[in-house]
Amino acid sequence: MPKRTRPWSALFALCLGFFMVMLDISIVNIAVPSMVRELGTELTAVIWVTSVYLLAYAVPILPASRLGDRFGPKRVFVAGLLVFTAASLWCGLSGDVETLILARAVQGFGAALMTPQTTAFITHLFPPDERGPAMGAWGSVAGLAMIAGPVLGGLLVDQFGWEWIFFANVPVGLMALVLTVILVPDWRPGNSHRFDVPGILLFGAGLVCVVFGIQNGQTYGWGTAFDIIGAGVLLLGAFVLWQRANRREPLLPLWIFRHRDFSLGTASAVTVGFTMTSMLLVFVVYIQSVLGLSPADAGLLIAPLAVVSGGVAPFAGRLSDRVNPKYLLMSGMLALSGGLCVVSQVLIPASSPQALLPGLLLCGLGVGFTFSPMNNVTINSVERSLIGSASGIFNTARQVGGVLGAAAVGVLMEARTSASMMARANEAAAALPAESRQRFIDGFAGEAGSAVAAGEFGGVPEAAADLPVQARELVAQVTGAALTDAVKVAFLLPAGVLLVGVVCAVSLRGPIGQDRSPDRMTVTR
């Protein structure tokens, strides 16, 4: 006999798995310097550990939402959780960066299977008057996990090594699996969908080309990179044309964008995904490579941001049911952008960690007020029949933003560090004897300087190794100053991108006054 499930218990089980998914976007950032050193590789390669996860996460989300409609969200969620947990174990056992990147791709695929099922369950389990707090809780998990990643990761890397940021997923994943089996109802929408294979291939190939071109422009030369980016743009253009021409069941139903609030909310999600991924990567590079903090200390420095975000998000979720969510979203994004600008302005090579706290706290306030209202205003703007597609598109958009953010900020950091390093080297050389100046400057030119700029944290250019002790001490000062110059600029990139999201939020109609979903139905286990 059908019986009513306990929706909050079911949501807790789903959010535990979703927390791991979001945590693994940001937790790798804190381990970047350790990975570079212990795997004997460069910053560009290690950024692929994040980028490939986001790519493998973003591309399959849309078809994964349809898998949930056909086979049941619970079954697809459990399958994704098993893949994610097993891939986490594989990541921890990886002995080289190539194997780690491959394992992270599999982990991202598991994450893609899980994510759209969580939002589908929220709209199914909760009636309209309870959906705001539920979406608030879900948004809190997303925001808190992104911020908590460096905090938890710092403790794990410091005490046990970078491998444990992945090993820690295994017991949590098994716990989430047991709770999901017990607490989550076996709801089966039973909708039969076609799978747009050409659309999946065009979208995946186009996104990979764009990200690869952006992220590897410094490595292969920007002439080649722009050719690859251009090919990616053409493939994405072909994808859009195919979606218009496909009269059966396209991967991306373009007509859903006729809903004004859904279109603008999805655009905002791209900017938020871009910002969250890029700002944490930049911040971790600065506090570990310039300030010299250990991973644990770096994580603790970020902790106030996580505390503020986690405390504010549930309140923002409840408030978004009572006031127009667009104003909460605008306030959150403005606070986050302002916080990044504040952090950028106080950075110097010898900054006190405490000097960063005002900007970080403002960022935490912004994150707390962003996720829940953004989810509410976007997903609840469409009819119930479109919820599956809407949640898939929304989550894909946020992850695409994250992919582009990681790639863009990585190449910006590398380019700005290289450019600043020569200027800083010329300034520092004035303190050396005349006969040592040119050799010192040459040590930062060409491949030697690029190696440091690419992320060989604390590396010393070979040409400077045989210089006087005074010169070798100046090397650390030059690299620290150059990284600081790059970080100051890099923080402004997500701050600027986020302002585009603010413009989208201003244009939202809101409020979400008319819920278009029928009342909650009895669900069965």
From TrEMBL:
Transmembrane domains' residue ranges: 46-64, 76-95, 101-122, 134-152, 164-183, 195-214, 220-242, 262-286, 298-316, 328-348, 354-372, 393-413, 489-508
One Gene Ontology term, aspect cellular component: plasma membrane
Keywords attached to this entry: Cell membrane, Membrane, Transmembrane, Transmembrane helix, Transport
Name of one Pfam family that matches: MFS_1
Any one Gene Ontology molecular-function term assigned to this protein's record: transmembrane transporter activity
Domain Major facilitator superfamily (MFS) profile: 10-513
Cellular localization per UniProt: Cell membrane
Topology relative to the membrane: Multi-pass membrane protein
The protein's name: MFS transporter multidrug efflux transporter
Organism the protein comes from: Amycolatopsis keratiniphila
